[in-house]
Amino acid sequence: MPITTRFAPSPTGLLHLGHAFAALTAWRRARDAGGRFLLRIEDIDPTRCRPEFTAAILEDLAWLGLDWDGPVRVQSEHLPEYRACLDRLSARGLLYPCFCTRAAIQRELAASAAAPHGPDGPLYPGTCRRLPPDERAARLAAGVPHALRLDMARALVPGLTFAEDGEGLIACDPARFGDVVLARKDAPASYHLCVTHDDALQGVTLVTRGIDLKPATDLHRLLQALLGWPAPAYAHHPLRTDTAGRRLAKRDHAATLRDLRAAGASPAGVRALAGMPD
Ligand code: GLU
After folding, report:
1. DSSP state, residue 12
2. Which of 27, 191, 206 for mutating ligand 1's site (highest number of atoms within 8 Å of CB)?
3. Is the pLDDT of residue 36 over 60?
């Protein structure tokens, strides 16, 4: 079966060389194998994503010489699909509403002697999981804003693994994430839910992405198992660093493709700078 890869940037800023490397990695893997390469815009978080960055990303990638198969999937145009996934999990009693504010969670964590940590920081202490049903119903009826959390103890599927390129099967430990948020108060669905839904829907067979997302794969495998989606293979690649060895990041104003282009760089020059010479 020919492979399908994808590049799935979040439009929170302009693309830099790290993105170019990630995009070219996915594109080359597909093209070298005669497979499909998809482009997906992960703009599910309205507090961080901006449409002008989406437009800039498409333009920069085309300038860089990438072509993609089929239409670009834009996550914000598919909110009912993610809602339906949340409803499926809810119907099985695997989600609960969480009314806690960030500050309340901080206070509770500060008061507990040893708050366990997961890949994304201290684990949620489970306050709203333990709410009496009538209190929960009253808050829902009153329209108190809430997130939706996965009840990890109920949701856990033992024995999950994923296939990592060059490493073979890796055992998953999704419990490390605790009761992870799958829908935020201010964002309709979480990255974890949307990415796994879309990879399944779009028939992605090989997920190439930065090694910073490797720990999240444990949780992605759990969501795939719970929702009956196939498991793609994974190839996590190193992150590009600057000359001082620091990870390239939008917030540090790493040179964007726009800057390089304005300074006269050619697409081939930028592909080489990104570590993917022709
Ligand atoms: N949208 C994510 C990001 O920009 C990448 C998601 C993925 O490749 O799984 O960091």
Report:
1. S
2. 191
3. yes
| Cβ(18) – ligand 1 distance below 6 Å | no
Nearest atom in ligand 1 to 9's CA: 4
Ligand 1 center–CA 252 separation, angstroms? 18
pLDDT of residue 244 exceeding 60, the answer is: yes
Q: How far is the CA of 144 from the centre of ligand 1 (A)?
A: 31
Exposure on the CB side of residue 21, measured as CA atoms within 13 A? 18
Ligand 1 proximity of 45 Cβ (cutoff 6 Å) = no
- Per the rule left: phi > 0, alpha: psi between -120 and 50, beta: everything else, 245 is left
pLDDT in tens, 245-268: 677 665 556 689 999 999 999 999
Report the C-alpha gap between 262 and 266 in whole angstroms. 10
Beta bridge partners of residue 118, listed in sequence order? 121
Cα(164)–Cα(170) distance, rounded to whole angstroms? 7
Amino acid in position 10: S
Helices (H), the chain: 17-32, 51-64, 79-91, 102-111, 133-141, 152-155, 191-201, 216-227, 257-262, 267-273
C-alpha span between 261 and 263 (Å, rounded) = 5
> Which structure tokens are listed for 89?
């999990």
| CA neighbor of 176 nearest in space, from 207, 216, 214 | 216
Predicted confidence (pLDDT) per residue in 123-163, tens digit: 999 999 999 999 999 999 999 999 999 999 999 999 999 99
Check pocket membership of 195 for ligand 1, CB cut-off 6 A: yes
Closest CA to 139 of 189, 98, 103, 83: 98
pLDDT for 114: 78
